[in-house]
């Protein structure tokens, strides 16, 4: 099962990234644990830039890319690419 973390304080961009990730998971029919991390001490373990997307403890995205990129990154992680 995928473990996805959305890193950020809860700003509109963070919420957008979370929505894009959840949309991709739904379209791909993949079960995942999605967690929103807003603790600065936890965020800096991965990056200094938010929002960010972490999948299975690996930083995959910083910022809010277009939806196809979010879906692509999740698909690659599912396939183990």
Task: Explain what this protein looks like in three dimensions.
With 81 residues, the protein is of the alpha+beta class. The chain has three helices and four strands; from the N terminus they run E-H-E-H-E-E-H. The relative contact order is 0.27. Strands 2-1-3-4 form a four-stranded mixed β-sheet. The protein has a single domain, classed as Glutaredoxin (3-Layer(aba) Sandwich). The protein is 42% helix and 26% strand. The mean pLDDT is 96.
**Can you identify the CATH class?**
Alpha Beta
Helix content: 40-55%
The assigned structural class equals: alpha+beta
CATH superfamily: Glutaredoxin
In whole angstroms, how far apart are the ends? 16 Å
CATH T-level fold name: Glutaredoxin
What is the CA-atom radius of gyration, in angstroms?
A: 11 Å
What is the fold's blueprint, element by element?
Layout: E1 2-7, H1 12-28, E2 32-37, H2 40-43, E3 52-55, E4 58-62, H3 67-79
Parallel strand pairs: 1-2
Antiparallel strand pairs: 1-3, 3-4
Helix pairs in contact: 1-3
Give keywords.
alpha+beta; four-stranded mixed beta sheet; 81 residues
Brief characterization of the structure:
The protein has helices spanning 12-28, 40-43, 67-79, and strands at 2-7, 32-37, 52-55, 58-62. It is of the alpha+beta class and 81 residues long. The longest helix is centred in the first third of the chain and has 17 residues, at 12-28.
